[in-house]
Amino acid sequence: MTAVMRRPRPGGSTANVAPAERIAALDWAGIAAALDAHGCATTGALLTPPQCVALAGAYAMDHLFRSRISMARHGFGRGEYKYFAYPLPEPILSLRTALYPGLAEIANRWNEAMGMATRYPRQHHEFLERCHAAGQSRPTPLLLQYGAGDYNCLHQDLYGEHVFPLQITILLSRPQVDFTGGDFVLTEQRPRMQSRAEVVPLAQGEGVIFPVHHRPVRGTRGIYRVNMRHGVSRLRSGHRHTAGIIFHDAK
Questions:
Q1: 194 vs 152, 183, 197, 249, CA distance in Å?
Q2: Is residue 240 very low, low, confident or very high in pLDDT (cuts 50, 70, 90)?
Q3: In whole angstroms, what is the distance from residue 221 CA to residue 239 CA?
Protein backbone atom coordinates (compact mmCIF):
# COMPACT_ATOMS: atom_id res chain seq x y z
CA MET A 1 0.00 0.00 0.00
CA THR A 2 1.36 3.45 -0.90
CA ALA A 3 1.94 5.88 1.97
CA VAL A 4 -0.02 9.13 1.95
CA MET A 5 2.84 11.60 1.81
CA ARG A 6 2.97 14.81 3.78
CA ARG A 7 3.33 18.17 2.07
CA PRO A 8 6.97 19.30 2.31
CA ARG A 9 7.69 21.84 5.00
CA PRO A 10 8.93 25.09 3.42
CA GLY A 11 12.51 25.91 4.20
CA GLY A 12 13.97 22.57 5.20
CA SER A 13 13.84 19.21 6.95
CA THR A 14 11.00 17.76 9.00
CA ALA A 15 13.43 16.07 11.43
CA ASN A 16 12.74 18.44 14.31
CA VAL A 17 9.07 19.10 13.62
CA ALA A 18 6.72 18.41 16.55
CA PRO A 19 4.09 15.67 16.07
CA ALA A 20 1.25 18.21 15.90
CA GLU A 21 3.00 20.08 13.07
CA ARG A 22 3.60 16.83 11.19
CA ILE A 23 -0.10 15.98 11.52
CA ALA A 24 -1.16 19.42 10.29
CA ALA A 25 0.98 18.86 7.18
CA LEU A 26 -0.60 15.50 6.32
CA ASP A 27 -2.41 15.08 3.01
CA TRP A 28 -5.84 14.62 4.60
CA ALA A 29 -7.61 14.36 1.24
CA GLY A 30 -5.26 11.51 0.32
CA ILE A 31 -5.81 9.82 3.68
CA ALA A 32 -9.59 10.00 3.22
CA ALA A 33 -9.31 8.58 -0.31
CA ALA A 34 -7.11 5.69 0.87
CA LEU A 35 -9.49 4.86 3.72
CA ASP A 36 -12.44 4.90 1.31
CA ALA A 37 -10.67 2.69 -1.22
CA HIS A 38 -8.68 0.28 0.96
CA GLY A 39 -9.93 0.59 4.56
CA CYS A 40 -6.57 1.91 5.79
CA ALA A 41 -4.09 4.72 5.16
CA THR A 42 -0.44 5.13 6.11
CA THR A 43 0.89 8.49 7.23
CA GLY A 44 4.63 8.60 6.68
CA ALA A 45 6.76 9.37 9.73
CA LEU A 46 4.86 11.00 12.60
CA LEU A 47 7.66 10.45 15.12
CA THR A 48 11.43 10.75 14.76
CA PRO A 49 13.72 7.79 15.58
CA PRO A 50 14.74 9.34 18.95
CA GLN A 51 11.06 9.90 19.82
CA CYS A 52 10.31 6.28 18.91
CA VAL A 53 13.17 4.98 21.07
CA ALA A 54 12.09 7.14 24.01
CA LEU A 55 8.46 6.07 23.73
CA ALA A 56 9.35 2.38 23.45
CA GLY A 57 11.63 2.78 26.49
CA ALA A 58 8.69 4.15 28.48
CA TYR A 59 7.26 0.61 28.53
CA ALA A 60 9.45 -0.08 31.58
CA MET A 61 8.05 2.94 33.50
CA ASP A 62 5.09 1.40 35.32
CA HIS A 63 3.96 4.71 36.85
CA LEU A 64 2.85 5.86 33.36
CA PHE A 65 0.30 3.07 33.00
CA ARG A 66 -3.00 2.01 34.53
CA SER A 67 -2.83 -1.71 33.63
CA ARG A 68 -0.78 -4.43 31.95
CA ILE A 69 -2.35 -7.18 29.80
CA SER A 70 -0.78 -10.53 28.93
CA MET A 71 -2.27 -11.57 25.60
CA ALA A 72 -1.77 -15.30 26.20
CA ARG A 73 -3.62 -15.18 29.51
CA HIS A 74 -6.74 -13.76 27.82
CA GLY A 75 -6.52 -15.70 24.55
CA PHE A 76 -5.60 -12.58 22.57
CA GLY A 77 -2.38 -14.03 21.16
CA ARG A 78 1.15 -13.77 22.57
CA GLY A 79 2.94 -10.67 23.81
CA GLU A 80 1.70 -7.95 26.13
CA TYR A 81 0.53 -4.37 26.28
CA LYS A 82 -0.02 -1.59 28.79
CA TYR A 83 -2.71 1.09 28.87
CA PHE A 84 -1.50 4.58 29.70
CA ALA A 85 -2.92 6.35 32.75
CA TYR A 86 -4.08 9.97 32.76
CA PRO A 87 -2.44 12.41 32.37
CA LEU A 88 -1.15 11.04 29.08
CA PRO A 89 2.55 11.62 28.41
CA GLU A 90 3.95 13.43 25.41
CA PRO A 91 3.90 12.71 22.52
CA ILE A 92 0.81 10.49 23.01
CA LEU A 93 -1.34 13.43 24.16
CA SER A 94 -0.24 15.63 21.24
CA LEU A 95 -0.84 12.88 18.70
CA ARG A 96 -4.28 12.03 20.06
CA THR A 97 -5.39 15.65 20.17
CA ALA A 98 -3.97 16.68 16.80
CA LEU A 99 -5.12 13.63 14.83
CA TYR A 100 -8.72 13.72 16.02
CA PRO A 101 -10.15 16.70 14.02
CA GLY A 102 -9.10 15.32 10.62
CA LEU A 103 -10.37 11.87 11.52
CA ALA A 104 -13.66 13.25 12.90
CA GLU A 105 -14.41 14.78 9.51
CA ILE A 106 -13.94 11.38 7.85
CA ALA A 107 -15.92 9.61 10.59
CA ASN A 108 -18.89 11.96 10.20
CA ARG A 109 -18.92 11.46 6.43
CA TRP A 110 -18.79 7.69 6.88
CA ASN A 111 -21.65 7.67 9.38
CA GLU A 112 -23.78 9.78 7.06
CA ALA A 113 -23.06 7.37 4.19
CA MET A 114 -24.05 4.37 6.35
CA GLY A 115 -27.24 6.05 7.61
CA MET A 116 -25.97 6.27 11.19
CA ALA A 117 -27.18 9.18 13.32
CA THR A 118 -24.06 9.61 15.48
CA ARG A 119 -21.89 12.64 14.73
CA TYR A 120 -18.57 13.56 16.32
CA PRO A 121 -17.64 17.03 17.59
CA ARG A 122 -14.72 18.88 16.03
CA GLN A 123 -12.45 18.84 19.10
CA HIS A 124 -11.32 15.73 20.95
CA HIS A 125 -11.98 17.10 24.45
CA GLU A 126 -15.64 17.52 23.49
CA PHE A 127 -15.87 13.86 22.45
CA LEU A 128 -14.13 12.76 25.66
CA GLU A 129 -16.74 14.69 27.66
CA ARG A 130 -19.38 12.55 25.92
CA CYS A 131 -17.48 9.36 26.84
CA HIS A 132 -16.93 10.40 30.45
CA ALA A 133 -20.58 11.36 30.93
CA ALA A 134 -21.47 7.77 29.95
CA GLY A 135 -19.01 6.29 32.45
CA GLN A 136 -16.21 5.71 29.91
CA SER A 137 -13.38 7.47 31.74
CA ARG A 138 -10.39 5.12 31.52
CA PRO A 139 -7.77 6.11 28.91
CA THR A 140 -7.23 3.69 26.02
CA PRO A 141 -3.93 4.71 24.34
CA LEU A 142 -1.45 1.89 24.81
CA LEU A 143 2.03 0.54 24.17
CA LEU A 144 2.43 -3.00 22.83
CA GLN A 145 5.50 -5.20 23.20
CA TYR A 146 6.23 -8.33 21.15
CA GLY A 147 9.09 -10.83 21.21
CA ALA A 148 9.99 -13.71 18.90
CA GLY A 149 6.94 -15.94 18.34
CA ASP A 150 4.47 -13.34 19.60
CA TYR A 151 1.39 -12.25 17.65
CA ASN A 152 -1.94 -10.45 18.13
CA CYS A 153 -5.21 -12.16 17.17
CA LEU A 154 -7.69 -10.36 14.95
CA HIS A 155 -9.89 -8.13 17.11
CA GLN A 156 -11.78 -4.86 17.51
CA ASP A 157 -11.12 -2.17 20.17
CA LEU A 158 -14.65 -1.18 21.22
CA TYR A 159 -14.62 -0.64 25.03
CA GLY A 160 -18.10 0.81 25.53
CA GLU A 161 -21.20 2.43 24.08
CA HIS A 162 -19.38 5.44 22.63
CA VAL A 163 -16.90 4.32 19.97
CA PHE A 164 -14.88 6.60 17.73
CA PRO A 165 -14.70 4.66 14.44
CA LEU A 166 -11.05 5.25 13.49
CA GLN A 167 -7.76 4.60 15.29
CA ILE A 168 -4.04 4.62 14.55
CA THR A 169 -1.09 2.35 15.30
CA ILE A 170 2.46 3.75 15.11
CA LEU A 171 5.48 1.49 14.71
CA LEU A 172 8.27 2.40 17.16
CA SER A 173 10.82 -0.27 16.17
CA ARG A 174 12.93 -0.70 13.02
CA PRO A 175 11.69 -3.47 10.70
CA GLN A 176 14.40 -5.89 9.53
CA VAL A 177 16.75 -4.40 12.16
CA ASP A 178 15.01 -4.67 15.54
CA PHE A 179 12.64 -7.42 14.39
CA THR A 180 11.45 -9.54 11.47
CA GLY A 181 7.90 -10.67 10.75
CA GLY A 182 5.26 -8.97 12.87
CA ASP A 183 3.27 -7.29 10.08
CA PHE A 184 0.11 -5.29 10.73
CA VAL A 185 -2.87 -7.19 9.29
CA LEU A 186 -6.37 -5.88 8.56
CA THR A 187 -9.30 -8.05 7.48
CA GLU A 188 -12.58 -7.04 5.88
CA GLN A 189 -15.70 -9.23 5.86
CA ARG A 190 -18.20 -8.26 3.16
CA PRO A 191 -21.66 -9.86 3.20
CA ARG A 192 -21.83 -13.23 1.44
CA MET A 193 -18.12 -13.02 0.50
CA GLN A 194 -14.85 -14.46 1.80
CA SER A 195 -12.78 -12.23 4.08
CA ARG A 196 -10.19 -9.98 2.44
CA ALA A 197 -6.82 -9.41 4.16
CA GLU A 198 -4.59 -6.33 3.86
CA VAL A 199 -0.98 -6.52 5.12
CA VAL A 200 0.46 -3.07 5.82
CA PRO A 201 4.26 -2.66 6.01
CA LEU A 202 5.36 0.27 8.17
CA ALA A 203 8.62 2.16 8.69
CA GLN A 204 9.80 3.30 12.12
CA GLY A 205 7.69 6.24 13.28
CA GLU A 206 5.00 5.66 10.65
CA GLY A 207 1.33 5.20 11.46
CA VAL A 208 -1.52 3.25 9.91
CA ILE A 209 -5.05 4.62 10.28
CA PHE A 210 -7.85 2.05 10.12
CA PRO A 211 -11.46 1.40 11.23
CA VAL A 212 -12.23 0.21 14.74
CA HIS A 213 -15.34 -1.72 13.77
CA HIS A 214 -16.75 -1.18 10.27
CA ARG A 215 -16.60 1.08 7.22
CA PRO A 216 -18.84 1.98 4.27
CA VAL A 217 -18.29 0.32 0.89
CA ARG A 218 -20.10 1.22 -2.31
CA GLY A 219 -21.72 -1.75 -4.07
CA THR A 220 -24.00 -2.16 -7.07
CA ARG A 221 -27.05 -1.45 -4.89
CA GLY A 222 -25.58 1.47 -2.95
CA ILE A 223 -23.45 1.79 0.16
CA TYR A 224 -23.29 -1.01 2.70
CA ARG A 225 -21.38 -1.65 5.93
CA VAL A 226 -18.46 -4.09 6.16
CA ASN A 227 -16.95 -5.52 9.33
CA MET A 228 -13.24 -4.92 10.05
CA ARG A 229 -10.72 -6.59 12.36
CA HIS A 230 -7.01 -6.04 12.88
CA GLY A 231 -4.05 -7.88 14.36
CA VAL A 232 -0.31 -8.58 14.04
CA SER A 233 1.29 -11.60 12.37
CA ARG A 234 3.87 -13.76 14.17
CA LEU A 235 7.17 -12.09 15.01
CA ARG A 236 10.00 -14.16 13.51
CA SER A 237 12.83 -12.61 15.53
CA GLY A 238 13.77 -9.65 17.73
CA HIS A 239 11.50 -7.26 19.61
CA ARG A 240 8.76 -4.97 18.32
CA HIS A 241 7.08 -2.01 20.06
CA THR A 242 4.08 -0.07 18.79
CA ALA A 243 1.89 2.72 20.13
CA GLY A 244 -1.87 2.42 19.69
CA ILE A 245 -4.02 5.55 19.81
CA ILE A 246 -7.74 4.95 20.36
CA PHE A 247 -9.89 8.04 20.62
CA HIS A 248 -12.73 6.84 22.86
CA ASP A 249 -12.16 5.99 26.52
CA ALA A 250 -13.20 2.77 28.24
CA LYS A 251 -15.61 1.86 31.05
A1: 21, 21, 10, 32
A2: very high
A3: 46
Q: What is the average pLDDT score of the chain?
A: 93
pLDDT beyond 70 at 5:
no
For 119-141, what is the mean pLDDT?
Answer: 98
pLDDT confidence of residue 95: 97
Enter the pTM of the model: 0.92
HEC sequence for the chain: CCCCCCCCCCCCCCCCCCHHHHHHCCCHHHHHHHHHHHCCEEEEECCCHHHHHHHHHHHHCHHHEEEEEEHHHHCCEECEEEEECCCCCCCHHHHHHHHHHHHHHHHHHHHHHCCCCCCCCCCHHHHHHHHHHCCCCECCCEEEEECCCCEEEEECCCCCCCCCCEEEEEECCCECCCEEECCEEEEEECCCCCCEEEEECCCCCEEEEEECCEEEEEECCEEEEEEEEEEECCEEEECEEEEEECCCCEC
**Which residues share a beta bridge with 180?**
237
